Each structure stands twice: as C-alpha cells, then as structure tokens.
Amino acid sequence: MKKDIQEKGAIIQRDKETYAVAPHIPGGITNPATLRKIADVAEKYGAQALKLTSAQRIAIVGLPEEKLDEIWEELGEKPGAAIGLCVRSVKICPGTTFCKRGQQDSVTVGLEMDEKYHGLQLPWKFKMGVSGCINDCAEGCIKDVALIGTPKGWNVMVGGNGGGQARLSYKLLEHVPTDEEALAVVDHIIQWFKAKDRKCRLGKFIDEMGIDAFRDELLQDFKP
Fold first, then answer.
1. Which helix (H) or strand (E) holds 212?
2. Helix and strand totals (H; E) in the chain
3. Is the confidence at residue 222, as pLDDT, over 90?
C-alpha cells in the first residue's frame, strides 16, 4: 500500500494512488507570480483541486507519484512541513503590517520564527502561531507555542493543540516587552522540549507536570 513520501513532502490521498503537495508559503504571504506558478503546475499535471490549508499553504491535490520530482522542480519552492516529527507550521496573522487591530508586529516576528524553525526535527510534531492582538487570528489558543500581542508586548502561550484530545493553551508569561525577549523565550521552550525527547505533544507534557511546575522548571535559570 502506498504511503506518504516525507522526503518529497507528498501526502497520499483517499484514493490510495495520488498525492497532495503543499509548497511552503511563510505566513501565507505570497505574490501573484507564485500563485500563477502554482496554478500553472496544477493545470499541467491534472491536479484534482487546489486546497487552502489551515497552515496558510496551498495544497495541490491529486498528483501522480511518478511526476512528483518534476512538479517540485517546476514549482521551485520548498515543501511545506505538512508531515513528520517537526515544526509543522508557524501561523501568522496580518498584525500591524496590515490589520487595523494589530498591536504587535506579528508578520516580522512570525517570519523570523518561520525562517528559524519551520521543518526543525523534534521528538513529536509541533505547531506555532503569532497573533498581533488578543483576537488571536493565528489560533495560538491551540498551538504548542504561540505569541499573542498586547499593548504592552507579547503573551507567551504554551501547550495548546487540536485533534481528538484538544487542549487550550496556557499563558506562560504576560506582556513580554520586546520582540527579542519573546523570541528568546520561544527558543528556550523549543530547546527544552527537544532535550526532553518525549514522544508527545507539549500540552500532554504540561498536563502531566502541571503548568506551575512547568513554568518553574523552564524559567528557573532562564534570562532572555
């Protein structure tokens, strides 16, 4: 039986014959030329559909396995990390770059996180979000790690996830004043999770420890 092909970023479809691929579009921010290229490739190789994904990518659905290498060559883009034990995505809202409600620069901070962490191998799958205000359009409430903007800086959220055992994230820190300090906290959490080498979502880990014990252990020697 055919399976996902992780090295080609290809996900087997319901028919057990064709695949979907999703070029990486950091933060869902792109340009008309890239959209035209995706559309041209989809048309040329007889894709069944183009699907906008929850990770702010465009999945090209229903592609033949023998054409996957050609498709990636023509796309000229990196695969989105839609499968595997890694940082799957960094979801980003428009923030102060575009949105009238933005209170922090989620686009700049989120793209920096995407550049550093997207596809990073970890003990288990890991999702992140960056929202420019408490409306939380990047859905940090169900991400392993998220930053949510406030007038005084960033709230750092941890331990959320969707799925069959959904969890809302916990507030780890409130009003972290600068982008640099918030990014340092994010990096510390990721390195801590990597070092623990547990095969579970961060939220399950936190539920076992309790948020207070997690906060104490994580931050006991940390200085941003």
1. helix 211-219
2. 7, 9
3. no
Whether 137 contacts 149, CB under 8 Å: no
Digit-coded pLDDT (tens) for 123-176: 999 999 999 999 999 999 999 999 999 999 999 999 999 999 999 999 999 999
CA separation for the pair 111, 58 (Å, rounded) = 18
**Alpha-carbon span 140 to 136, nearest angstrom:** 6
Report the candidate in 156, 200, 201, 195 with the shortest Cα–Cα distance to residue 174: 156
For residues 210 and 199, give the distance between their C-alpha atoms in angstroms, rounded to a whole number: 18
Nearest partner of 171 among 213, 211, 224, judged by Cα? 211
Q: Do the Cβ atoms of 41 and 48 come closer than 8 Å?
A: no
pTM of model > 0.90: yes
What distance in Å separates the CA atoms of residue 68 and residue 52, rounded to the nearest whole number? 20
Helix (H, G, I), strand (E, B) or coil at 63: strand
* CA–CA dist 24, 27 (Å, integer): 9
